[in-house]
Amino acid sequence: MNTRTLVIVLIGVATLFLMAFIKPFSTSESWEVPAKYKKMKNPYAGVEDSERVGQTLYVVHCKSCHGKTGMGDGTKSKSLKTAIPNFTSEEFQCQTDGELYYKTIFGRDEMPSYEKKIKDDEDRWLLVNYIRTLNK
Ligand code: HEC
Fold first, then answer.
1. What's the domain count of the chain?
2. Pocket flag, ligand 1, residue 65 (CB < 6 Å)
């Protein structure tokens, strides 16, 4: 093996090491939602929630962390390691209803799963509709 080949091999090995090291940090940032959910149609889009089901569920289950207005400043927020996304931000609101549904129901790490606590599909979508209204 001549010097040039050796240098190329060493650069290759070093790059692999770096990638393995950086990956766990970068993936914890973005939260990929499976395409099936991402494209899911909200069957209750635009439906009037006269009984305020969405808001009630939000106050009971979500407000403690996400805050009354969705700013991520609930009473429990300070004891968490993970930064809480701001529901009023454009970055949050530009996600599809399906993405919000998926993240709400399945959660990850410090974001709890609501698969068992909120079972009714209509309730789940009304909750998504409610967090959509926190856009200001
Ligand atoms: C114990 C605190 C806690 C509670 C309670 C909680 N969340 Fe979360 N939530 C989080 C944290 C922390 C994150 C960020 C998670 C991450 O990025 O890994 C999050 C993220 C989210 C996201 C994804 C935001 C984004 O842009 O990626 C949605 C949607 C969400 N929560 C909705 C809800 C809803 C709806 C409820 C109530 C049913 C709820 N959460 C209850 C802590 C909480």
1. 2
2. yes
